[in-house]
Structure prediction request, 325 residues.
Amino acid sequence: MYNNIWLIFSYTIPVKNPNLRVKAWRRLQTVGAVQLKSSLYVLPFSETNYEHLQWLAKEVEELGGEAVFFQCAAVENVTDSRIRGLFGKARDEDYSLLDEEIRAFLATYEGRALKQEDAVKDFQAGLKKFTRRFQAIQEIDFFPTGRAEKVTMLLSSGVDRLKVLTGETVGLPPMALLRREDYQGRLWVTRGRPYIDRLASFWLIRRFIDPEAQLQFISPREKPKLHPDGIYFDLAGGEFTHRDQMITFEVLIASFGLQDRGLSRLAGLIRHIDLKEDLEGAEEARTLQDLIDGLVNNTPDDHELVQRTIFVFDALYTTYQGKKS
Prediction:
């Protein structure tokens, strides 16, 4: 999360050196700057962004141009929210373009069997290329709007398709991961009367993603009212919800790269219960379901229910982390 301190950059380039003008403009685009006014560019303050502009100013001046940059707590005639909106719009456009290209790429493989070695390599290379581009956009997505999550799901669906089509898991491109630092102190919204997947998902959020996460419940029949800082999970249209064959708990694990022995064991149990899979022979899942059912029936307040189940998942996770398979 960035404080509302801005770095303002302006430069002029001699007419005789148009290549430098293009180079400076591209460098500003690469580091995520947006145009505030005709000759002014802005970045949120960070040590990294400050260093980027230092080097760019030095380069411009060494080649005969002029550059100036400074930091300020406010721009008098442009509100902070409008500046953040400029960043959001720019990155949303980047994500939308990438989304279109990924969909077009995946469509060319629709219905095709990737049994030939060359076809598999081409598919893998395409996913790796798109993943690198996605990660480059993420690096300059200073004020996330939620658009990144949709591209993450699209990329991971490509990985899932490769697994299904080849029947293999070796050599797959890594799934694009979301950055936990972009999800700190957020409001997480889901349906009321939470059950196993929502309860476990919020435990995962609080313990591994956003330790200061706040939780808000809405009625299952209530149309979500978009909150500017809200992250919607385990509900239709949410950023994190069931996808393909994955439950919300598994989607969160995959999106943030949280895999370990304890989470894998928990995911298996939660999946059994949430998808109503046959629990015959799955005694641990049956026992967990009985415990959750009892807590749900004895706890009418949803927030109190969440707090009670957090202790349950803490205990199970600690046990599974230390238990050999």
